[in-house]
Design a protein that fits this description.
The chain has five helices and five strands, in the order ββαβαααβαβ. The chain is an alpha/beta fold. The protein has a three-stranded parallel β-sheet with strand order 1-2-3. A two-stranded parallel sheet has the order 4-5.
Length: about 180
Protein backbone atom coordinates (compact mmCIF):
# COMPACT_ATOMS: atom_id res chain seq x y z
CA UNK A 1 0.00 0.00 0.00
CA UNK A 2 1.15 3.52 -0.73
CA UNK A 3 1.49 6.01 2.11
CA UNK A 4 -0.96 8.87 1.83
CA UNK A 5 -0.15 12.41 2.82
CA UNK A 6 -2.69 14.98 3.83
CA UNK A 7 -2.13 18.60 2.85
CA UNK A 8 -1.89 19.45 6.55
CA UNK A 9 1.16 17.14 6.76
CA UNK A 10 3.01 19.31 4.23
CA UNK A 11 2.88 22.47 6.32
CA UNK A 12 4.87 23.01 9.50
CA UNK A 13 2.63 22.47 12.50
CA UNK A 14 1.70 25.64 14.33
CA UNK A 15 2.62 27.92 11.43
CA UNK A 16 -0.36 27.20 9.21
CA UNK A 17 -4.00 26.32 9.50
CA UNK A 18 -5.15 24.09 6.66
CA UNK A 19 -8.83 23.34 6.35
CA UNK A 20 -11.43 22.94 3.61
CA UNK A 21 -13.90 24.74 5.86
CA UNK A 22 -13.20 28.48 5.69
CA UNK A 23 -15.20 29.09 8.88
CA UNK A 24 -12.76 26.79 10.72
CA UNK A 25 -10.01 29.25 9.81
CA UNK A 26 -11.88 32.08 11.46
CA UNK A 27 -12.79 33.49 8.04
CA UNK A 28 -9.25 34.87 7.75
CA UNK A 29 -7.60 32.74 5.02
CA UNK A 30 -4.54 34.22 3.37
CA UNK A 31 -4.42 31.80 0.44
CA UNK A 32 -6.78 29.55 -1.44
CA UNK A 33 -5.66 26.29 -3.05
CA UNK A 34 -8.24 24.54 -5.17
CA UNK A 35 -8.53 21.90 -7.82
CA UNK A 36 -11.95 21.62 -9.49
CA UNK A 37 -14.12 23.80 -7.26
CA UNK A 38 -15.66 26.68 -9.24
CA UNK A 39 -14.63 29.64 -7.11
CA UNK A 40 -17.13 32.45 -6.70
CA UNK A 41 -16.03 36.02 -5.96
CA UNK A 42 -18.09 36.10 -2.77
CA UNK A 43 -16.11 33.12 -1.41
CA UNK A 44 -12.86 35.09 -1.45
CA UNK A 45 -12.28 36.78 1.89
CA UNK A 46 -10.63 40.20 2.00
CA UNK A 47 -7.64 38.58 3.74
CA UNK A 48 -6.78 36.38 0.72
CA UNK A 49 -3.43 37.32 -0.83
CA UNK A 50 -3.18 34.65 -3.57
CA UNK A 51 -5.08 31.81 -5.22
CA UNK A 52 -3.44 28.64 -6.50
CA UNK A 53 -5.10 26.24 -8.92
CA UNK A 54 -3.63 22.78 -8.29
CA UNK A 55 -3.44 21.70 -11.92
CA UNK A 56 -3.41 23.25 -15.37
CA UNK A 57 -5.71 26.09 -16.33
CA UNK A 58 -7.62 28.63 -14.28
CA UNK A 59 -11.05 28.39 -15.92
CA UNK A 60 -12.73 27.73 -12.56
CA UNK A 61 -11.42 30.97 -11.05
CA UNK A 62 -12.70 34.47 -11.90
CA UNK A 63 -9.20 35.68 -12.83
CA UNK A 64 -10.36 39.05 -14.19
CA UNK A 65 -12.15 39.87 -10.93
CA UNK A 66 -9.21 38.68 -8.83
CA UNK A 67 -6.89 40.87 -10.94
CA UNK A 68 -9.13 43.86 -10.19
CA UNK A 69 -8.82 43.02 -6.49
CA UNK A 70 -5.03 42.70 -6.75
CA UNK A 71 -5.03 38.99 -5.94
CA UNK A 72 -2.60 36.99 -8.08
CA UNK A 73 -3.87 33.70 -9.48
CA UNK A 74 -1.47 30.99 -10.57
CA UNK A 75 -1.63 27.36 -11.59
CA UNK A 76 0.61 24.31 -11.57
CA UNK A 77 0.68 23.01 -15.14
CA UNK A 78 2.09 19.54 -15.41
CA UNK A 79 1.57 18.73 -11.73
CA UNK A 80 -0.61 15.72 -12.58
CA UNK A 81 0.68 15.14 -16.12
CA UNK A 82 2.43 11.87 -15.29
CA UNK A 83 -0.66 10.45 -13.58
CA UNK A 84 -2.84 11.32 -16.59
CA UNK A 85 -0.26 9.84 -18.97
CA UNK A 86 -0.35 6.58 -16.99
CA UNK A 87 -4.15 6.48 -17.22
CA UNK A 88 -4.00 7.04 -20.99
CA UNK A 89 -1.47 4.19 -21.41
CA UNK A 90 -3.59 1.99 -19.11
CA UNK A 91 -6.65 2.74 -21.25
CA UNK A 92 -4.75 1.84 -24.41
CA UNK A 93 -3.72 -1.49 -22.91
CA UNK A 94 -7.19 -2.25 -21.55
CA UNK A 95 -8.84 -1.46 -24.89
CA UNK A 96 -6.36 -3.31 -27.09
CA UNK A 97 -6.05 -6.54 -25.10
CA UNK A 98 -9.62 -7.31 -23.96
CA UNK A 99 -8.56 -7.27 -20.32
CA UNK A 100 -11.85 -5.99 -18.92
CA UNK A 101 -13.85 -8.39 -21.07
CA UNK A 102 -11.66 -11.30 -19.97
CA UNK A 103 -12.05 -10.34 -16.33
CA UNK A 104 -15.83 -10.08 -16.72
CA UNK A 105 -15.87 -13.49 -18.45
CA UNK A 106 -14.01 -15.11 -15.53
CA UNK A 107 -16.22 -13.45 -12.90
CA UNK A 108 -19.58 -13.79 -14.66
CA UNK A 109 -19.21 -17.02 -16.66
CA UNK A 110 -16.33 -19.25 -15.57
CA UNK A 111 -16.60 -18.84 -11.80
CA UNK A 112 -20.38 -19.40 -11.65
CA UNK A 113 -20.20 -22.42 -13.99
CA UNK A 114 -17.11 -24.10 -12.54
CA UNK A 115 -17.60 -23.28 -8.85
CA UNK A 116 -14.43 -23.37 -6.74
CA UNK A 117 -12.80 -26.29 -8.53
CA UNK A 118 -9.34 -24.95 -9.44
CA UNK A 119 -8.64 -27.71 -11.96
CA UNK A 120 -11.89 -27.01 -13.84
CA UNK A 121 -11.33 -23.25 -13.71
CA UNK A 122 -7.76 -23.62 -15.01
CA UNK A 123 -8.88 -25.86 -17.87
CA UNK A 124 -11.76 -23.53 -18.75
CA UNK A 125 -9.52 -20.45 -18.75
CA UNK A 126 -7.07 -22.20 -21.06
CA UNK A 127 -9.91 -23.11 -23.44
CA UNK A 128 -11.54 -19.66 -23.37
CA UNK A 129 -8.46 -17.42 -23.50
CA UNK A 130 -8.48 -17.36 -27.31
CA UNK A 131 -11.65 -15.24 -27.06
CA UNK A 132 -9.58 -12.39 -25.62
CA UNK A 133 -6.40 -12.33 -27.70
CA UNK A 134 -6.54 -8.65 -28.50
CA UNK A 135 -3.88 -6.79 -30.43
CA UNK A 136 -0.40 -5.58 -29.58
CA UNK A 137 0.15 -1.84 -29.46
CA UNK A 138 3.54 -2.13 -31.17
CA UNK A 139 3.28 -0.89 -34.73
CA UNK A 140 -0.15 0.69 -34.21
CA UNK A 141 -0.62 4.42 -34.85
CA UNK A 142 -1.74 6.75 -32.09
CA UNK A 143 -3.03 10.25 -32.75
CA UNK A 144 -2.34 12.77 -30.00
CA UNK A 145 -4.18 16.10 -30.08
CA UNK A 146 -2.45 18.59 -27.81
CA UNK A 147 1.26 18.29 -27.13
CA UNK A 148 1.51 20.06 -23.81
CA UNK A 149 2.68 18.46 -20.57
CA UNK A 150 0.34 15.47 -20.86
CA UNK A 151 0.39 14.99 -24.63
CA UNK A 152 4.18 15.08 -24.81
CA UNK A 153 4.45 12.42 -22.10
CA UNK A 154 1.88 10.23 -23.85
CA UNK A 155 3.91 10.55 -27.06
CA UNK A 156 7.11 9.47 -25.25
CA UNK A 157 5.38 6.48 -23.64
CA UNK A 158 3.72 5.43 -26.90
CA UNK A 159 7.05 5.63 -28.74
CA UNK A 160 8.64 3.51 -25.99
CA UNK A 161 5.92 0.91 -26.63
CA UNK A 162 6.88 0.84 -30.31
CA UNK A 163 3.86 2.75 -31.54
CA UNK A 164 3.78 5.17 -34.45
CA UNK A 165 2.63 8.59 -33.27
CA UNK A 166 0.98 11.45 -35.10
CA UNK A 167 0.68 14.63 -33.05
CA UNK A 168 -1.20 17.87 -33.54
CA UNK A 169 -1.10 21.06 -31.53
CA UNK A 170 -2.00 24.39 -33.15
CA UNK A 171 -0.33 26.29 -30.30
CA UNK A 172 3.00 24.45 -30.55
CA UNK A 173 5.81 26.65 -31.83
CA UNK A 174 8.38 25.43 -34.32
CA UNK A 175 11.09 25.83 -31.67
CA UNK A 176 9.18 23.72 -29.14
CA UNK A 177 8.50 21.02 -31.73
Amino acid sequence: SFPTRRSSDLFEEGKYKVDANVEALGNQPMAIMLRSHKLQVEEVASTVRCIARCGAGTNNIPVDKMTELGIPVFNTPGANANAVKELVICSLLLASRGILEGNAHVNNVINPEEGHDYAKISKRIEADKKMFGGQELMGKTLGVVGLGQIGARVVDAALALGMNVVGYDPALSLEAA
